[in-house]
Amino acid sequence: MTVQTAYDKAKADGRAALVGYLPAGFPTYEGAVEAAKTMVDAGCDVIEIGLPYTDPMMDGPTIQDAVHQALVGGIRVADVFRTVEAVAATGVPTLVMTYWNPVDHYGVDRFARDLAAAGGSGLITPDLTPEEGGAWLEASDAHGLDRVFLVALSSTDERIETITRACRGFVYAASLMGVTGARSALDTGAPRLVERTRAVLDKAGRALPVGLGLGVGTGAQAAEVAGFADGVIVGSAFIRRLLDAPDLASGLAGVRALTEELAAGVRHGR
């Protein structure tokens, strides 16, 4: 199943898609795989696997803590691909979310080849612009991978057009200005950002879904976002359940409970 197929299936069910994020190697390699599988079993339609990076400038303290633990634990790019392979084996589309430097250092075509071989669906690249992504555009075409770029509240309509033209799979709408992390309230500009992005896609004749992330942490927020976006993306809230748990079993139980709450939310939002 492709990422867009997962979004289309959710739409056919009369709901938004639920997209869950976890970094590889957190709390351990095995723990990350188990947590992601739990998310799938409890209702996630798409999984994002984060590639741990030493300088996560766009991430808030929750993801930074998790990434630090993964790096201290010795996680490497090869382990990220192993994680993707294990999660993709569930049949759920599995993307890697990564800063660009590790991909560039690894070798763009080599990274794309190894990701495709692991069963990965594509990349989300928050710090890569389409203008600087020529090597990735070529490699993703060569290996049949989706490429997900971000639009933001500050993006002009012209900028949204440039970004969405380069996207495949879905468009990632970042609802907050600043670093990642769950919030008590969503930015009031989020619906307008999704509306503007859809208008640009409609004008270009492209039926590409728009997923919204950064800040969602409760079922009520998931329902709110599901009322206007095609997908609800959640990361920090899952990580927090694992960070706060006394052991992995408790953490997995917390991840399952949150996934079920969010999955119910994306259904109530429509």
Describe this structure in words.
- With 270 residues, the chain is α/β, with parallel strands linked by helices.
- The protein has a single domain, classed as Alpha-Beta Barrel (TIM Barrel), CATH 3.20.20.70.
- The chain has helices spanning 3-12, 29-42, 61-72, 77-88, 100-106, 108-117, 134-143, 157-166, 190-204, 219-226, 236-243, 248-268; strands at 17-23, 46-50, 94-97, 122-124, 146-148, 150-152, 171-174, 210-213, 231-234.
- A 9-stranded parallel sheet has the order 5-4-3-2-1-9-8-7-6.
Helix content: 40-55%
Number of domains: 1
Strand content: 5-15%
| Overall 3D form | globular
How do the helices and strands follow one another from N- to C-terminus? HEHEHHEHHEHEEHEHEHEHH
Helix segment tally: 12
If strands are numbered along the chain, what order do they take across the biggest sheet? Answer: 5-4-3-2-1-9-8-7-6
SS-based class: alpha/beta
Q: Can you tell me the CATH superfamily?
A: Aldolase class I
The radius of gyration is 17 Å
